[in-house]
């Protein structure tokens, strides 16, 4: 089964998934560098988004492993409750709707019959992403004092009345540049690896097409000298 698994083949869903992640990475970076160009509520929403990812990062694993009935009647409503609680924490729901599209893309295996090889690959990718999330959140929480705030300085947060708009508290809320830094790294690293893999595979195909030697066939003609 594993021998037939092609890790270099990209489905259209892969491009959709990494396209959303590239968009998230861009939004996180722009808010980190130039928060004055965005609504102050977006700072809080991005911080909550990274906290919510702690719950949703497991969705790909569960949806790939569990039977369809469990996915539809147990995990899907359960994640819906988490989404509702997340909706109560954010100020602007636009980022929530975009994020839910990503979650639905992760959960597509619960609504379709796919090959066991594809399901196993998705399970492995989701597990790696969950491990990456845990190590990353541990790193940014421990090293939060060395993370540069860039545009999200204390002066800007107070001047923009950020602390009057938030609905919760904690490290991610009091220092929003910490989860925003985490979000930028969390979404940009898989996209960069995906782009590298696509370019590498494209280069291999191009090299193969240029180095392939033409096959020349010779036809032997036999002339029979018969006297009539």
Structural class: mainly alpha
Gap from first CA to last CA = 67 Å
Helix percent band: 55-70%
Radius of gyration: 25 Å
Shape: globular
Q: What average pLDDT do the residues reach?
A: 79
Query: Got a strand count?
Result: 0
In percent, how much strand structure appears in the residues?
under 5%
Number of helices: 10
Largest sheet: none
Low-pLDDT sequence parts: 1-8
Could you state the order of secondary-structure elements as H and E? HHHHHHHHHH
Give a structural overview.
By secondary structure, the protein is mainly α. The protein contains 10 helices and no strands. α1 runs antiparallel to α5, α2 packs antiparallel against α4 and α2 runs parallel beside α5. The termini are far apart.
In short:
The protein has 10 helices and no strands.
What distinguishing features does this structure have?
228 residues, 10 helices, 69% helix
Helices, strands, pairings?
Blueprint: H1 12-33, H2 40-56, H3 59-65, H4 68-89, H5 94-106, H6 116-142, H7 154-159, H8 162-165, H9 171-174, H10 177-211
Helix pairs in contact: 1-5, 1-10, 2-4, 2-5, 2-10, 3-6, 6-10
